[in-house]
Amino acid sequence: MTAPTDQFILTLSCPNRPGIVARVSTFLFEKGCNILEAQQFDDTESGRFFMRVVFNVATGAATGAEIRAGFAAVAEALALTWGLRDKADKRRVLLLASKFDHCLADLLYRWRIGEIPMEISGIVSNHARETYAHLDFDGIAFHHLPVTKATKLEQETEIWRIFQASGSEVAVLARYMQVLSDGLSAKLSGRCINIHHSFLPGFKGAKPYHQAHARGVKLMGATAHYVTSDLDEGPIIEQDVERISHQDSPEDLVRKGRDIERRVLARALSWHLEDRVLLNGSKTVVFRD
Amino acid sequence: MTAPTDQFILTLSCPNRPGIVARVSTFLFEKGCNILEAQQFDDTESGRFFMRVVFNVATGAATGAEIRAGFAAVAEALALTWGLRDKADKRRVLLLASKFDHCLADLLYRWRIGEIPMEISGIVSNHARETYAHLDFDGIAFHHLPVTKATKLEQETEIWRIFQASGSEVAVLARYMQVLSDGLSAKLSGRCINIHHSFLPGFKGAKPYHQAHARGVKLMGATAHYVTSDLDEGPIIEQDVERISHQDSPEDLVRKGRDIERRVLARALSWHLEDRVLLNGSKTVVFRD
Amino acid sequence: MTAPTDQFILTLSCPNRPGIVARVSTFLFEKGCNILEAQQFDDTESGRFFMRVVFNVATGAATGAEIRAGFAAVAEALALTWGLRDKADKRRVLLLASKFDHCLADLLYRWRIGEIPMEISGIVSNHARETYAHLDFDGIAFHHLPVTKATKLEQETEIWRIFQASGSEVAVLARYMQVLSDGLSAKLSGRCINIHHSFLPGFKGAKPYHQAHARGVKLMGATAHYVTSDLDEGPIIEQDVERISHQDSPEDLVRKGRDIERRVLARALSWHLEDRVLLNGSKTVVFRD
Amino acid sequence: MTAPTDQFILTLSCPNRPGIVARVSTFLFEKGCNILEAQQFDDTESGRFFMRVVFNVATGAATGAEIRAGFAAVAEALALTWGLRDKADKRRVLLLASKFDHCLADLLYRWRIGEIPMEISGIVSNHARETYAHLDFDGIAFHHLPVTKATKLEQETEIWRIFQASGSEVAVLARYMQVLSDGLSAKLSGRCINIHHSFLPGFKGAKPYHQAHARGVKLMGATAHYVTSDLDEGPIIEQDVERISHQDSPEDLVRKGRDIERRVLARALSWHLEDRVLLNGSKTVVFRD
User: Fold this and answer.
1) Which of C83, C259, D171, D200 has the smallest count of CB within 10 Å of its CB?
2) What pTM was estimated for this model as a whole?
3) Nearest-by-Cβ selection for A134 from C112, C115, C252
4) What are the pLDDT digits (tens) for C74-115?
5) Is the distance from CB of D220 to CB of D230 less than 8 angstroms?
């Protein structure tokens, strides 16, 4: 094994054809890189190939910049959509929340103990700071952006300004109860994660726990997905469920749902930040840990 | 404990009001019955009360017929919908299947080893006996009833005739791939169980595994429900799911689904036969084991 | 339905014999009580009967004190071990933690939003207040009680003093990493809940995640149990597991385990506080929600 | 994509070092092979690297024999432990059973519908053919080999003779209730799969369901593992669990366990036959589907 150095994560997708793995892995070998993890997927329906590689570099071998520059030529030859990140570079994440703060509190906790590799670039809410009186924001900028039908455009413009000004790369709707406009959804395409409190595609729209109760299902769930302009139809990243019974009132479902929501959202966000999620049309490829 | 005697299962539902449990349990005590299991549910939405009691009778105390006769007076006073069965009396079940026989084979196996308390009153299929060449039907009557659009009425008339003539009390659509008409659904109301190969209410209708694959869900499931004239909308008895991934083709989902389908259907049927499932409008109360 | 009044929870166990349910439910009916939930279990091995009843009282009917006084006579006649609580009376709970605070933070959050019905009577740790700098204790008394082998007796004496002085009824070892002595275990018998980070009886003792990694299991879990002098052998209240793989390092198991631990402990504590857990020798009867 | 040809599965393990993936994938590319699936694992503890590759070959390119011959040189240079199989070549599997036939019946069913890619080379039981009167063995050789303490050596000698004479490559203890001797375990090392009816390492040895009932666990499980001379300590391939409660008698656990056992064993066997399971000391690397 090489001496411990920085680790890099390379992700790529392209039309499938023979030789991709050989080309990529030979490039890495010649640059003095050692592959630590690699996962790939050949989608025989769409004809696309997806790959994620984690590698480190032998001491004294190439720098990140050199690897990036060299790989650009490989990528062009293979018509790759690709990304290369130093694993230690944490993405900046903007959290959006509303009144219910269980997902927000959970993400803050996981961030604090180093479980989710991110910097929090800010917290946006349509509720005031007092709503979260018991949460220690630890110096993170808080933006109170109330919203009405009449002011939605201005409010979203301000969200977008904050997103950009804070150097954010990802937005998380942590039970943010406002539907994003098509325009903002488009701007945040592929980098905005929502948690929907049902096992999609069942119970789209409002009050899914009440819908689930009314239908009498025996399991209920939550879904983390990328936000698109088509409400509750974005690419699904992660889902989970728990067993319920006739005894559970809608309030019981809300209570039990909090646990599912927070773990599903935390997983989806972690995987996104570790470059484990690749878009494949309206679906995702998730190279799980 | 009393000497071992027959066990009885009493189920009841009624508008809730104080004193029901006292009245029922006092009646049983006075008849020399010992309660072995009891479960109840007070639906505060519908205002209905549901109860299931398993009891046995002290040697020399009342007979089943005496208990039944005596309880009728209690039931009338409380406006109960009720049923009383000797646990040893097995219901007669008509199995309906089509080409895929994994649920049929599974139910036959569980019946043979005594896991599901039933007599099988017959097997109906729109495919010929050779389709199941490797299955030992053990003398159970097999009815080959092919069906086309033009002959559906006649075929269903024959199914109904067989159901009645064979003394059947329950029908099971064990991946029987024909939609029952409204008329037959109505006749079998509350005693016909279907297994739908999706986690309802997601992916209603045809080819649910292909729908699930196209949507990119991360869990897939199966649903056992009572058949109603409203397709895939009947009261749900049991559901289960398994985790899937982007790697799973529709064929993989079909394969993995077989395991979910057969265990969900077997559970739902067993619970129905043990009088654990009570109808509550368009939902069910399930007193699980 | 009666007008909304206080709800009461009655739990009892006794040697099984006919007539218990009749006697109890008739008593409640005569006092003007309406049963909202009832669950019972007849353990044919030990010959003991267990019951939990939630009821409310018609306006103008008996008070809690009257019901309690009246029931004492019933209880004596039937040789019951029993308890009767006003559901609105919250028990006082002493939380004990060490360095890792994920369970502590989780319980505080659930308490704050009203999910777990308790008052927190104090927080004890062998680490200093700064360890939890980011947690808002909201005025709850914090007791820093460092401990060494030499001072264990004195430290436990102080824990016991705090438990009594604060009016505590339950102690929770929320990843408190000190083994309680036999003496303190005995004093807290049946009212001290621990979370062990393995799926007991596998991987007792220290570093269970490392043990699980070394053995190569494919699922890992956590166990909430009552503390007894026999380490990791106390009556189990709740367990849960998650799937792991060969890729998971011991550190990954620690990370994934945090989610299991906190939900298993929260469930066990909630059920204990709702009088859903009854001791049955070295096992528990859990009337789940 | 190349025209559809035979698919091959390559598995390998070796001491980790840079360049393995490059070397292997470049070899395959140069031989006209297209990688369809690839999974790898770098065990940083043992310093070993594991890889599984599924590929097909362009029409007119190399034959399987040519690929095998060419790869031998690569393998020697890298000190690989490796295997290369035509995916269409089904392994021959010897099934061993005792009185309870739920796993046997299940494997036969899955084999018949083509779900598990194997040929069944024979069925061995210490019970007579009549025990399985309702199972259609479809011409598979059945060997009744009763056994006593005194005849164990002779009986195992006969098992081994049958295993060899029938060209078997895998043995499956499908609830075969005899403990294999150290000698036979050694001969079948790495190719004999057992299903143990507990969630190992909990409840080793006899009557695990009764042990689980006595301990009062809230989940129970089953474990498929390779047989070694150290009873119930072999490398674990797959495990699963289901929730149980205080209501479940040991007989209920036996019943519920059948479902877990058969799906865990079927998964483990399928994965073994698809070369998804690689031995890593006393553990396994499982490249799941």
Assistant:
1) C83
2) 0.96
3) C112
4) 999 999 999 999 999 999 999 999 999 999 999 999 999 999
5) no
Query: Considering only CB atoms, which chain C residues are within 8 Å of D280?
Result: 216, 246
User: Quick one: which H or E segment has residue A239?
Assistant: strand A236-243
On whether any CB of chain C is under 8 Å from the CB of B26, the answer is yes
Contact D32 A19 (CB under 8 A): no
Q: Which of B16, B20, B26 sits opposite C1 (nearest CB)?
A: B16
> In sequence order, what are the beta bridge partners of D241?
D221
Domain parsing of chain A, residue ranges: 7-86, 92-286
Cβ burial, residue D105 (10 Å; 0-12/13-18/19+)? buried
pLDDT digits (tens, 9 = 90+) for D241-289: 999 999 999 999 999 999 999 999 999 999 999 999 999 999 999 999 8
**C99 at the D interface (CB within 8 A)?**
no
Of the residues D36, D104, D134, D270, the best mutation for testing chain B's interface (the one with the most B CB atoms within 10 Å of its CB) is D134
From the list B201, B203, B216, the residue facing A283 with the nearest CB is B216
Q: Find chain D residues with C-beta within 8 A of C216's C-beta.
A: 235-236, 280, 282-284
D39 CB contacts (<8 Å, ≥6 apart)? A39, D51, D52, D287
Provide the shortest C-alpha distance from residue C67 to chain D (in Å).
30
- The reply to whether residue C201 touches residue D215, judged by beta carbons under 8 angstroms, is yes
A231 secondary structure, DSSP code: T
Rounded to the nearest angstrom, the minimum Cα separation between D118 and chain B is 16
What is the spatial distance between Cα A266 and Cα A118, in angstroms, rounded to a whole number? 12
Q: Which fold has domain A92-286?
A: Rossmann fold (3.40.50)
Report the half-sphere exposure of B266 (CA within 13 A, side-chain side): 23
D82 at the C interface (CB within 8 A)?
A: no
**Coil, helix or strand for A241?**
strand
The residues in D 161-190 lying below 8 A from A, measured between CB atoms, are none
Catalytic residues of C: 232
Inter-chain contact C218–D286, Cβ cutoff 8 Å? Answer: yes
Decide if C274 contacts C238 (C-beta within 8 A).
no
Residue D5: predicted pLDDT? 57
CA distance C25 to B26: 8
- Percentages helix, strand, coil for chain D, rounded to the nearest 5? 30, 30, 40
* Residue range A167-191, pLDDT digits in tens: 999 999 999 999 999 999 999 999 9
Span A26-42, pLDDT tens digits: 999 999 999 998 999 99
Cα gap D257→D253, rounded to integer Å: 6
Percent over 70 (pLDDT), chain A: 98
B243 reaches D (C-beta below 8 A): no
At the topology level, CATH places domain B7-86 in Alpha-Beta Plaits (3.30.70)
Task: Give the separation between CA D284 and CA A184, rounded to whole angstroms.
Answer: 47
Q: What is this model's ipTM?
A: 0.94
- List active site positions of D: 232
Which chain D positions have a beta carbon within 8 Å of C280's beta carbon? 216, 246
Ramachandran category for residue A235: left, alpha or beta (phi over 0 → left; psi -120 to 50 → alpha): beta
A281 vs chain B: nearest CA distance in angstroms? Answer: 10
Give the per-residue SS3 of B235-262.
Answer: CEEEEEEEECCCCCCHHHHHHHHHHHHH
